[in-house]
Amino acid sequence: MWFANFFIAGSITMVLPFISLYIEELGNFSDEFVQTWSGWVFGITFVSAFICSPVWGKIGDKYGRKKILIISAAGLALSVLLMGFVTTVWQLFILRLFMGVFTGFIPMSQALISTQTPKNIAGQVLGTLQTGSITGSLLGPMLGGWIADSIGYAITFQFVSITICLSAIIVYYGIQEQRIENDNVDEKASYQTKEVLSHIIKHPVLLMVMIVSLFVQIAHFSIQPILSLFVGELHGAENLALFSGIAFSAAGLGNLMMAKRWGRIADKLGYIKILVFLLFMAGLVYFPAAFVTNIWQLVFLRFLLGVSIGGIIPVRTAYIRQEAPIAMQGEVLGYNTSIRFLGNIIGPAMGGMIAGAYGFSMVFFVTSGLLFLCGGLMLITMQKNEPAAKQVPSY
Fold it and tell me: Which 8-state DSSP code applies to residue 359?
C-alpha cells in the first residue's frame, strides 16, 4: 500500500507545476485569463472531492474498501489520460471536476489499513503509510516538470495515467482485505448516514478532531498561494523557482522524517495528547516566520512546520479508527476528508485576501492564531471528556 500511495500522490502532483502553462497552450489568452482559469481548474477538484468523499467512504464500508481503491485509481487514470487530449479550457475544467470525484484513494487507503491494523499500533502504521504519499508529493512536482520539459505537457498527462494504473495493479494483486469481526456484539454490521452523524455529534472529542482538521488545512494552505511571492521578497528574482521549491519541499521533508515517529509516540502516550502538542507546536513555528529576513530562516521554519504537521494526519486518523465502529469508519473518515478538502478551498483564498490587504506577515500571524486556538479548544475538550480521549490499549 505504501507504493500505491507513493504512485498516486506523485502522479497527482506531477501535473500541478505546469497546469497554468498547459492552459496557455490551449489558446491565445491574456495573462489575466490564464491566472483566473488556473485557479478555477486547480480548485474545482477539491470541490467535487469535498462532495464525494463521504459517499465513497459509505460504499467502502458496505462493499469493501479494496474495490473502491481500484475504482478510484481507474477513475483518476482515465481523467488524467483524457487531459492530454483536450483542446479547450472548458474540457480541462470538466476533467478536473471528474478527477475530484475519484480523488479519495489516499484517504480510503488509510481507512483500509486502519481497519486491518491493531489499535495499539495504528498511529505508527498510519504514519508509515503517510510517508508514501509524502515522498510522492515531494518527488512528483520535480519529476513532472522535468518530463514536461522533455516530452511536452500533453504526453506527460498520458505518462501520469500509466503510473496511476500501476497503483490499481498493486492494490489488486498485492492487498488482501480481511473482513474484521466485531468483538463488541452490540455493534451493527452497517449504519445509516444519520446514525453515523449522530455518533460523531455524541462524541465531543471526535467532533472536535474533525473540526480541527478543517482549521489545520485552512492554516496550512493559507500560505501556499503567496509563498513564492514571499520567497521573492526575501531572496529576489534570481533562481526564484528553485528557492520557492526548496521552501515548499522543506515542510515535506520534515513531514516525511517525523510522521511515523509521531504515530509511534501517540500509540504509547495517547492520540489526543499528542495532537494537542502538535497543534501548539505548529502555531509556535508559524509565528516567527513573519519576522524572517532571509530565505534560509524561512526554510528552517518550514522544516519545523513539517515536523509538527507531519504527525497530525496519522494521529487523528488513528483516533478515528479507535473511536468509530468498524462498520462506519470509512464514512467517518470520508467526512473528515471532505472537511479537509473544504479547508484546502478556504485556505488559499483567505491567505491571498489577507496578504493583499495587510501584507505577508499578517498571514503568518492569523495562521499561528488559528493553530493556537485549535490547540486550546482541543485541550479543553480533552479535559472535559478525559475517558473518551484515551486510546484503547489493545485490539
Answer: -
How far is it, in rounded angstroms, from Cα 380 to Cα 58? 31
C-alpha cell at 292: 524572517
What pLDDT digit, counting tens, does each position of 186-198 carry? Answer: 556 677 878 888 8
How confident is residue 387, by pLDDT bands cut at 50, 70 and 90?
Answer: low
CA dist 368 and 283 (Å) reads: 4
Residues contacting 189, CB < 8 A, separation 6+: 327
CA angle 100/12/213 to nearest 5° reads 60
Residues 6+ apart with CB under 8 A from 193: 54, 58, 331
Give residues with Cβ within 8 angstroms of 44, minimum separation 6: 93, 96, 97, 100
pLDDT at 10 over 70: no
For residue 191, give the 3-state DSSP assignment.
coil
- From the list 274, 312, 344, 354, the residue with the least C-alpha distance to 130 is 312
Assigned C-alpha cell, 171: 492494490
- At 316, the amino acid letter reads R
Which residues, including other chains, have CB under 8 Å from residue 186's CB and lie 6 or more apart? none
H/E element holding 83? helix 65-83
Q: What is the band of 395 on the pLDDT scale with cuts at 50, 70, 90?
A: very low
Q: Which residues of 157-187 are buried (b: 16+ CB within 10 A; e: fewer)?
A: bbbbbebbbbbbebbeeebeeeeeeeeeeee
Which class for 261: exposed (0-12), middle (13-18), buried (19 or more C-beta within 10 A)?
middle
Measured at the CA of 207, the angle between CA 202 and CA 213, to 5 degrees, comes to 170
Q: How far apart are CA 100 and CA 31, in angstroms?
A: 26
Contact assessment for residue 334 and residue 53, using Cβ atoms and an 8 Å cutoff: yes
Distance from chain centroid for Cα 8: 12
Residues in the chain: 395
Model pLDDT for residues 347-382, shown as the tens digit of each residue: 877 887 888 788 888 989 999 999 999 999 999 998
For residue 247, the one-letter residue type is A
Spatial distance between the Cα atoms of 40 and 351, rounded to a whole number of angstroms: 16
Read off the pLDDT of residues 140-167 as tens digits, 9 standing for 90 and up: 666 766 777 777 778 888 888 888 888 8
* pTM for the model: 0.73
